[in-house]
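input
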Amino acid sequence: MRLSKLKLLGLAAGAALVLAPPALRADDSTNLLRIDHYVRAKSTVPSITGQDAELYVREVVLAGNGLRSSVNTNRVVLFVHGAGTPAEVSFDVPYQDYSWMAFLARAGFDVFSVDMTGYGRSTRPPAMSDPCNLSAASQTQFVEKACTATYPKQLTTIASDWHDIDAAVDYLRGLRHVDKLNLVAWSLGGPRAGGYTSQHPEKVNRLVILAPAYNRNGTADAPKSVPGGGAAFTTQSLAEFTTNWDRQVGCPDQYDPAASRSVWSEMLASDPVGATWGTGVRRAPSVTNWGWNQAVVAKMQTPTLMISGVHDKQVNPTSVRNLYEDIGSKEKVFVDLACSSHNAMWERNHLLLFKASLEWLTLGTVQGAKDGMLKLGY
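output
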């Protein structure tokens, strides 16, 4: 069930106020509600620094819990997406039992996801509306003749992403009257959520990261030129989406084509402008990245679960094992997930992933272990 939203001027946090039904019948309490929040923040994205921006936050919660102003400690979760796919598409797929957010919500968690600036239903900088700001190779899909970029730089930075996460975290801490949240992240969400956690351990209870993009030898400091040069944003078509997934298939029936269609449908719905370009694409900003390397993670003490699909060809499973070795927390588990790619949450072994995350968020263990390297699904 999706509740409607009402924006009121002057809301300090800039969130959309959601109108709840005047009463919930007892037999409605096990239904899931999906509630839209819009968090206002002063942007630190280079092209729109200082301007008001809105971050789209989706909540998924049991109806019986939806009217609470506070929750039990450690029962709030915030999902952080990766480099291309917005959070509500990544984690709330409306196909069978494939929604990771819904799985945790049914277990009693109050679950949220946030789109970084430039993604999904959050503010998109104007440079993303100009196909001339794509790479020369990508322009040919949308313009008859190559054109000069009006913004010839990467659009966002890891620091602006950390700023967006902090705005969402502080909003949810106030909304639910908790000191700490749990963070769940995927792919580039690794350095986003992990880097944020390293800076704000007082705000994060536990961390779950699927296929985190980790480079132990990366630089801890921002490059001299921020943002970096290059195309401001990228696009992905259905053909590119499917080709990238298919190259990571390593076992029979690894994913359900109907699940893939559901993901792509939601992808286009999250980007109404991109949906009109060519045959329909999703757009995502290019990000200047730094700051989550061996020296940084060695100091992290937050309990962390890391999961890697054995067939992942976007983030090498070896780099995730490196993260397990390097991270300073004594409570850390690495899971090697069978028959899974970079898109593990959309594949046949998704429930193994979801159940491992639930045990970690609830008990701080996977199969009873607080530390170690495990295999699931073999």
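quick obs: The CA atoms of residues 82 and 188 lie 4 Å apart.
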